[in-house]
Amino acid sequence: MAATVSDTEQIAGIAEKIRAGKTALGIEFGSTRIKAVLIDDTYSTIASGDYSWASHLEDGLWSYSVDEIWKGLQSAYAAMANDVHTAYGEKLTKIGHIGFSAMMHGYLAFDKDGELLVPFRTWQNTNTHEAHEKLSELFQYNIPERWSIAHLYQCVLNKEEHVSKVAYFTTLAGYVHWKLTGEKVLGIGDASGMFPIDPTTHTYEQAFIEKFDALPEVAAQPWKLENLLPTPLVAGTPAGKLTEAGALLLDPTGTLKPGIVLAPPEGDAGTGMVATNSVRVRTGNVSAGTSIFAMVVLEHKLKALHPEVDLVTTPAGDLAGMSHANNFTSDLNAWVGLFGQFAAAIGQPVDAGTLYGTLFRTAISDDADADCGGLINYPFRSGEFLAGLEEGRPLFVRNPEARMSLANFMRAQLFSAFSPVKIGMDVMTKDEHVEIDSLVGHGGIFTTPKVAQKILAAAFDTPIKVMTTAAEGGAWGMAVLADYLWNTNEDHTNLADYLDGRVFKDAQSTTETPDSSDVAGFERFFERFGKGLPIEKAAIAAVPLEG
């Protein structure tokens, strides 16, 4: 069909914005996908590209290689740039602002010459339990196993050979940003997952740094912690420019020119908050992907130390409580893939959208029992602190009298996926009485209308809103943070007002309120889920991690 005049004019208008650099690019390194999203000055996605990847075990620890990082970045960028050329006939030589984000935490340590000392250790690793316990006790502040400082301290405790050579350590987003700009900085939200942040000064908690440095095994090292950490920056702060070498690292064709100002590199928690307009106090979001976290921006610090709740900050530096579960969609995707293989085997292959939508809808159909009919699923591909598991073994369990149906099976899959994160959320709402004005669902699982939204409302017993940007993900949120640089330069609008008044001014959304039968059914399932955890522990003891 020939393009209408309005279509042609729209394409020409976007092409002009691309030539003028009225764009912002966000690239996010997720656990299973690296995605690049280019937006214009109306916050609409005008081009995108992605690259699939997966962590692998290296010396028993989850990792991605440096080669994978750069290959994935270049591939996602190239796909986005090709999208620009195909749709608008433009070669991407300039971009208004760029921002990188990635899965938070983990451990990338470098020597004085900038050489990586050990393979990248991702947030998935739970070998840092001793460090978590000792530091949480020392600070009286929860230091989760996946935090960067826990990784560093565990290396100290283990007397790893490389520790004395550490000159800098950072997150994945911080690493990519550093290599493209030369700047050792980090968005404050991502930084808060490395080491605790003081929300009043927007710097690391100095008293904690002093306590850490005073530990005998740390004092014996030739470095001080504050000299190893990246500098935290709040959203809207220019974080360096794309160097010539950085431009070629991002776009080896040489088409993209250097000099572009970058936003502070953020973590996926921060981009999730932005993508769901959840940076204001008493707002929250649930960001669901390979892992899942539920976050609420707090009015004040929590009264007690709770290992189930992480304290991080928004990209603007406000304190937020987070319940984080390492496992979410990996096991679910594996089961859906199995059904896809069956469809292909009988000569009826279906696309992914149809496959997921059809299976998900059964979970809220009339054939589904409120409590999944006695079926239980354990989605643990990796360890799960909230469930007390150092490793994971995906399991599906049922008693002989359980009602095995497709509807109950899919409902159990979704119920189980949301169960671990409910543990920490219950601590905030039931033990600390945290008040929530709104909770927004965010991530690809909400693409199928109503299903995951309705089940999450049952899990948390609170209304769940899903916005039209729900499937955009963190890369779009990072692009918005990159665009925010324009606004802070112009009128110093704070981030919450910028999101409310500009980005989400006309956003549409749907809200699912909790159904009392679903809430009661989820509670029954959740009780069985908890009582059955010894089965998971037995599987860990009996089934090898590899082979």
UniProtKB/TrEMBL annotation:
InterPro entries xref list: ATPase_NBD (IPR043129), FGGY_C (IPR018485), FGGY_Carb_Kinase (IPR050406), FGGY_N (IPR018484)
Source taxon at top rank: Bacteria
Family as reported in the entry's similarity comment: Belongs to the FGGY kinase family.
Organism encoding this protein: Bifidobacterium biavatii DSM 23969
Domain Carbohydrate kinase FGGY N-terminal: 24-213
Residue ranges constituting the Carbohydrate kinase FGGY C-terminal domain according to the UniProt record: 285-484
Protein name: Sugar kinase
Keywords: Carbohydrate metabolism, Kinase, Transferase, Xylose metabolism
GO biological process: D-xylose metabolic process
Molecular function in Gene Ontology: kinase activity
Annotated Pfam families: FGGY_C, FGGY_N
